[in-house]
Specification:
By secondary structure, this protein is an alpha+beta fold. It folds into two domains: 138 residues, 3-Layer(aba) Sandwich (Rossmann fold), CATH 3.40.50.1820; 237 residues, Jelly Rolls, CATH 2.60.120. 16% of the residues lie in helices and 26% in strands. The strands form four sheets. Strands 7, 8, 9, 12, 13, 14, 15, 16, 17, 18, 19 and 20 form a twelve-stranded mixed sheet that branches. Strand 14 and strand 15 form a beta hairpin. The radius of gyration is 23 Å and the shape is globular.
Length: 458
């Protein structure tokens, strides 16, 4: 079996059943957890994706054409909305993550870097696979990753070697090569490793701070831990709008600061980040009623003269679909993640560096003016931030791909004219920080028979 997206998800679901006729699979990619990966990442409804599958996939693929008596089952959308806070509903109806260790067939796992739907839960359970396996983390290609993978000569040659080995019993040497191939988007080089995450990873903390200057609207981001006993930054919840008197019309308030942003100084040396990423955030809200809000985190890169350039093409990288109006034009985004705050509780037994694990089964309503800790999983990064570049971070409570005005359903209710402040803390007591997987170069590069040197972005 081979395929991406829907066809990748189905490969995992098939492989855990180990049918005797199945010889190998190539998911490229496919989430292993439909709740965390597609419908409710961070337990927040991804309304943009739901609208897509309802308007395109369900009507055009599953029930094609206007046939007498043929209607969409009522439970397609009702099931999504009625189970907004019920991860187990989705785990029973899709998602192989709990049974990945049952897979007996060989797996060639292909994960396009920064894929917005699949890559996080595609990679999170890679090490649960016990059968022979290989992993390719391919270049960033935006929403065009499928034709980019399947129409590239080098990857097709690699696929032929894989299928010849497992289907025709031809010794192509592919299983003698390192298990993992990772493309570094910042250098344009393939790097070969024996495991994922990389064993020599240093989990570095990058702390946020006030650090505002007269020339920058952004706070600071760096490896020095906070020095102040008390320090924080506050912004308005984006649903707080300015109401036109005597009407139901709400307009954006230009005086509202609706997000926070932080950046490192120009880097003094290259920093290679390869692997899972997370953020530990300490925050509170002034919301007086039982609070149900969410955080949206984005990480990007700024070059010395604007957006970072693709080292192969010399042009700016394609901007991902999750770039919004709050993303400055000089920022190229590499990662994002979100978490509904009432599901902040962790399952420590499943959590790993860069991969905080939330059960999404034990909601906790938050009290106003109380500081809580939130650990937020972000999309893995595979990029070298070059010397002179900056790492950029954004913290918000709203996002264009989601809807939080009514966080329990998909429709947009009227925004609130009330003043709701979100305060993020960055002090010695509450040191909010990113956790980044920094990987140093090997002393000696691994040589392979057929390197993926031609599998590069165009």
């Amino acid at each position: 079996m081979m395929g991406a997206s829907y066809f990748g998800v189905n490969q995992w679901s098939t492989a855990i059943q180990n049918p005797p006729h199945l010889k190998c699979i190539v998911p490229c990619p496919g989430t292993t957890d439909n709740f965390r990966g597609m419908i409710y990442p961070g337990s927040v409804l991804r309304s943009s994706f739901v609208i897509y599958i309802v308007s395109k996939i369900l009507q055009e693929a599953i029930w094609p054409g206007l046939l007498p008596g043929k209607e969409l089952p009522e439970n397609v959308i009702a099931g999504i909305f009625a189970n907004s806070e019920d991860g187990p509903f989705y785990w029973e109806h899709g998602g192989a993550w709990r049974e990945m260790d049952k897979i007996n067939v060989p797996v060639l796992s292909i994960a396009p870097a920064a894929n917005d739907l699949h890559i996080t839960q595609h990679l999170s359970h890679y090490n649960s696979i016990r059968s022979p396996k290989k992993l390719i983390i391919s270049p960033w290609a935006g929403s065009r990753y499928q034709p980019f993978i399947f129409e590239t000569e080098a990857i097709n040659e690699y696929l032929l070697r894989w299928f010849d080995y497992w289907l025709k019993e031809i010794d192509t040497g592919i299983m003698d090569e390192p298990e993992v191939a990772i493309y570094d988007n910042g250098t344009g080089r393939w790097q070969y490793e024996d495991e994922y995450p990389v064993r020599r990873t240093e989990w570095k903390r990058f702390y946020i701070g006030t650090g505002l200057t007269s020339t920058s609207p952004w706070g600071s981001l760096g490896e020095d831990s906070p020095g102040r006993q008390k320090d924080s930054s506050t912004f308005k919840h984006p649903s707080v709008k300015r109401q036109i008197p005597g009407s139901f019309i709400f307009l954006p308030n230009p005086d509202n600061k609706e997000f926070l942003a932080f950046t490192t100084p120009p880097l003094e040396e290259d920093i290679t980040i390869k692997g899972p990423v997370s953020m530990t955030l300490y925050a509170s809200t002034t919301e007086k009623r039982p609070s149900d809000w969410a955080f949206f985190i984005k990480i990007g890169e700024i070059g010395p003269d604007g957006p970072a350039l693709n080292p192969v093409t010399g042009k700016p990288f394609l901007r991902p679909d999750w770039t919004d109006a709050w993303t400055p034009k000089e920022v190229n985004l590499w990662s994002y993640g979100n978490l509904k705050t009432k599901f902040r509780r962790l399952d420590e037994s499943r959590s790993k560096p860069g991969n905080p694990w939330h059960s999404f089964t034990d909601p906790e309503i938050l009290e106003p003016n109380t500081v809580y800790e939130f650990q937020i999983e972000l999309v893995p990064i595979f990029n070298t931030f070059k010397k002179g570049h900056k790492i950029w971070l954004q913290i918000a409570c709203e996002d264009k791909d989601y809807n939080l005005w009514d966080s329990k359903s998909s429709y947009v209710t009227g925004p609130s004219p009330r003043s709701i402040d979100i305060t993020v803390y960055h002090s010695r007591e509450y040191p909010s920080h990113l956790v980044l997987p920094v990987v140093r170069d090997k002393e000696k590069d691994i040589k392979v028979k057929s390197p993926l040197c031609d599998f590069l972005p165009h």
